[in-house]
Design goal:
alpha/beta, Rossmann fold, seven-stranded parallel β-sheet
Length: about 300
């Protein structure tokens, strides 16, 4: 009997015409459900029992999902982050979970710097005013005048530090794991507490895994410490930031602005007040966009799938 595979990862669906021959050659049936961003738990529970393997995005593979199948052998995550997968439940049901570590460090780091430069040089505001026929000299600043605080100095955070050091920024960073002295010295980074970042950074950029320690790492208490009105950048996971606390900080000028590629609820609701703010730059969870790195992840994700299928 043919193996059946569910491909719910949106980025692989976008390129599937280029990849389908791999599955045809291996005599595997593939289902491509209609996806906007990800499937929900109930959708998965209804159909997961049909499949031997899954290539997923950020779909919630909860214990209830794993309890709804006896066939499933492997969940191959497209990309790096596996926080939406209950790893203990997968192990309890004999399902192998795979991912591609360090998949998108370069495109995400580029996006982070793009956000920082957009704020520093008023790119969005100047463009908007010019198109309205206004000719105003808006004050900006250079990145070399500012302090960057990085929360999470792993693969992506280190690449952000590398780029920021080229702009002669003062860089402070925090990580729950020991930071290599070589990285600290190479990019001129000072290791500090999160509280020192909240108090002293002009830009705060989040690049850590999502776990119990980092859930809502930016909350009401964190924003209350921010006396320098920093810009907040999040290209990691939406739940690193309390959305209600962020809105309060924006509305009360506690921070100067935010650039968000990820959100607690995705897609973001159409009535979310953050959509109306001029001091916020928004993107649809797309900072990993890169033909080169997508191709690498496609290849590795399929390799992982067939290794355990």
């Amino acid at each position: 009997m043919k193996k059946k595979v569910l491909v719910s990862a949106p980025y692989m669906q976008m390129d599937f015409d280029k990849l389908k021959e791999i599955f045809i050659e291996r005599d595997v049936d593939v289902t491509l459900p209609i996806i906007r961003e990800k499937m929900d738990e109930n959708e998965l529970i209804k159909i997961i029992g049909e499949y031997d393997g899954v290539i997923c995005g950020d779909d919630p593979f909860t214990r209830k999902v794993f309890e709804s199948t006896t066939k499933l052998k492997v969940v191959s995550k497209w990309g790096t982050g596996i926080n939406a997968i209950d790893l203990q439940a997968a192990a309890d049901h004999g399902v192998k979970v795979c991912n591609t570590p360090n998949a998108f460090s370069h495109p995400v780091a580029d996006t982070t710097l793009a956000f920082m430069l957009a704020f520093a040089r008023n790119v969005m505001t100047t463009d908007k005013q010019m198109k309205k026929g206004e000719w105003d000299k808006i004050r900006g600043f250079t990145l070399s005048e500012k302090t960057l605080g990085i929360i999470g100095l792993g693969n992506i955070g280190s690449q952000v530090a590398k780029r920021a050091s080229a702009f002669n920024m003062h860089i402070i960073a925090n990580d729950i794991k020991p930071i290599s002295p070589i990285i600290l010295e190479q990019y001129g980074i000072t290791q500090v507490s999160k509280e020192e970042i909240f108090k002293n950074a002009d830009f705060i950029s989040i690049h850590c895994d999502l776990n119990e320690d980092s859930f809502h790492v930016l909350n009401e208490d964190a924003f209350a410490l921010m006396t320098r009105r920093p810009h907040i950048i999040n290209t990691a996971r939406g739940s690193h930031i309390s959305h209600s606390a962020l809105l309060y900080a924006l509305e009360n000028n506690i921070i100067s602005g935010a650039a968000l590629d990820v959100f607690e609820e995705e897609p973001i609701p159409a009535d979310d007040p953050i959509l109306t703010r001029d001091d916020v730059i928004l993107a649809p969870h797309n900072s990993n966009n890169s033909p080169k790195y997508w191709a690498h992840v496609h290849t590795n994700t399929i390799k992982n799938l067939f290794k355990y299928l």
